[in-house]
Design a protein that fits this description.
There is one protein chain. The chain is mostly helical. 87% of the residues lie in helices and 0% in strands. The chain is built from six helices and no strands. It starts with a helix and ends with a helix.
Length: 171
């Protein structure tokens, strides 16, 4: 075995990782698209909502490659999904909730929740605790990200309304 074999294995591993990432991104898009149709969003809103789900998963993957944790990547992805939802809602003149909900579909912690419950049913409390902690951090990241963006958006809206009111009183 020479260096050529080592390089071939490394290249194969990288190609395999890229393939898996592409499959995950396409699956996030198709899953979000399915939920957009299921929620009956309308022809205008289906594609932007599904693209939000795909981009949300891309943000999660990118941050997860940098930070090997669940809280920060889920926080970053939920910040993305909420910002995108608010911007898309203004552009498309539609409720932000439809973009937010469909965009969150890829982030739902299905596997960690399954592993938590599976370990609990098997009475493996140590594993259930570890999986449960990871699941809670994941969900907490999602909640904090959405709350931060919605709170900031609400504050900005109120300040704009207050400014508009004060300007109209002076005129």
């Amino acid at each position: 075995r020479g260096l050529g074999d080592v390089y071939k294995r490394q290249r194969f591993r990288r190609c395999r990782q890229v393939q898996q990432t592409i499959i995950q991104v396409v699956t996030a898009l198709l899953g979000s698209l399915g939920f957009a149709f299921m929620f009956n969003l309308g022809k205008r809103n289906v594609i932007p909502a599904a693209v939000n789900g795909m981009c949300t998963w891309i943000v999660y993957i990118l941050v997860r490659n940098i930070i090997d944790d669940v809280f920060i990547p889920s926080l970053a992805a939920s910040l993305w999904v909420a910002i995108y939802a608010e911007i898309a809602a203004r552009i498309m003149k539609a409720p932000a909730n439809q973009y937010l909900i469909v965009g969150l579909i890829p982030l739902l912690p299905g596997a960690p929740l399954y592993y938590t419950l599976s370990a609990a049913f098997d009475s493996d409390w140590k594993a259930a605790s570890a999986y449960g902690n990871s699941t809670m951090l994941f969900v907490l990241g999602i909640a904090v990200g959405i709350s931060a963006v919605c709170g900031c958006d609400d504050i900005i809206r109120r300040l704009k309304n207050k400014k508009a009111e004060s300007l109209s009183k002076h005129i």
